[in-house]
Each structure stands twice: as structure tokens, then as C-alpha cells.
Amino acid sequence: MSAEGVIEDEIENEIDFGNSVGVDESTTLFNGQLRWKFGKERKWSLFGQYFDAESSGEAVLTEDVEWQDITFREGTLVGSGVDVAISRVFVGRSIVKNQRHDFGIGAGLHNLDLSTFIEGNAQIDDNDTGFRRSEASNNQPLPNIGFWYNVSPARNWLIHARIDWISASIGDYDGTLWNAAAGVNYQAFRHVGFDLTYQYFNLNANINGSNWNGGVDVQYRGPVLAVTINW
To answer: Which of 18, 107, 173, 221 would be a feasible disulfide site paired with 140, CB 3.0-4.6 Å?
Structure first.
């Protein structure tokens, strides 16, 4: 999966973590999901998802970088990283549901946990301070709305799509989040299937918290191969 990100510290020092400080644009993520259908004709659904994408890397700086009041000078070897973790709970109801089609809408809650770091030999007020690690993090629960659509074109095959969207100013957070996925599932055995999904995640927000006062624009996109279990 590929990752892109621009992080701002106090909305003044904008850093492209991929091009400037060497964060790898390819990342491996964990994506676990659970769905429970209940109610009359099983039209109600409770979804759970945990999504964690962590990228890191290192680079020799081609220009000075200032982050959290610490300056890393041109020519310095620095390490850096970005970690985005999403916990999602979603309740929805099928509006159209039959043997082939399932279309539904609902609402839920995303808990967004975002953290970054830069480390290396640093300066503060033009004085060398040796090796330093500068971190910024924020945790914020956010309500969202979304919908899903599943279609079964043939026995044992399922094509599925889902979109969650947030645009709000809540607590420390002010911005927009998109979390979407589309894929195909093959039910190879009675309770076990195989799934290939394209996952897209985009966060563009300003954050005004005690551990982070700045902005973030990060994007993850790419394929997710999974084993599904149902009963």
C-alpha cells in the first residue's frame, strides 16, 4: 500500500514526510473487520474495524527542517515515521436486501489516533543538543456517516463497496476524512473465503491539541488481501 503525507507544525512549518525526511511511501498495514447481522430479516448490521498503517524511513536532509521547535540541519541523517490507527464502530440498516443485492446506510464513530516523529542530531536556538527525538500525536473520536453496497453476481462470489465520510469541527479536530473500500470475495469453503480489496484513506485536518498544534494531510491507498470467516 502506498502512503503520502504532508504534516504541519503550528500551521507554519510544512513538511512532506515522504520527500523531505524519508518516510517510505510503501507500507504494510493491519486491517481487521467484523460484521454482525441481526434483527428482522437480518437487516440491521453492526460493523467493527481496526486499521493501522505505520510508515518509517531515514534520509540525509537536503535543507533545514524545523519540527516542534527543534531544527535538524541540512546534511543531517534523520529517521522519521508516521502512524495512523483507526478504530471504527458503525451501525447500519439495509434499505434494499434480497438474494443478490444489499444496499444500506448508517452512522458510527471513528477513533483517530495519529502520531509522527523525527529523530537525529538537532539544534535548539542555534545550539547543538546532540541526538533528539521530536514527537507529535493526537487522539480524537469522530462521528461519521456512510453506506455500503454488496452484489452477488454468481454463486460463491461477492462484489462489495463501502464509503465512510466525516467533515466536522469537533474538539481538537477540524477537517475531512474519507475511508473507502471496494473489492471482491470468493467463498471457497462453507465458512472461509478469500478477499481482495482496494483500500483508500484520506485525512485533511487542522489539529489544535496539547500534543499537536498544526495540520495534517495524509493518504493511504492500495490493495488488501484477506481471509474471511463467516458463520
So the answer is: 173
CATH number at residue 127: 2.40.128.90
What does residue 153 show for φ and ψ, rounded to 5 degrees?
A: -75, -20
Residues 54-91 pLDDT 10s:
888 888 888 888 877 788 888 888 888 888 888 999 99
Let me know: does 128 contact 121? Beta carbons within 8 Å. Answer: yes
Q: Rounded to two decimals, what is the model's pTM?
A: 0.79
| Residues sharing a CB contact under 8 Å with residue 182, sequence separation 6 or more, in sequence order | 159, 160, 161, 162, 197, 198
User: Domain of 126?
Assistant: 2-229
The number of distinct structural domains making up the chain is: 1
pLDDT tens-digit series, residues 203-223: 888 888 777 777 788 888 888
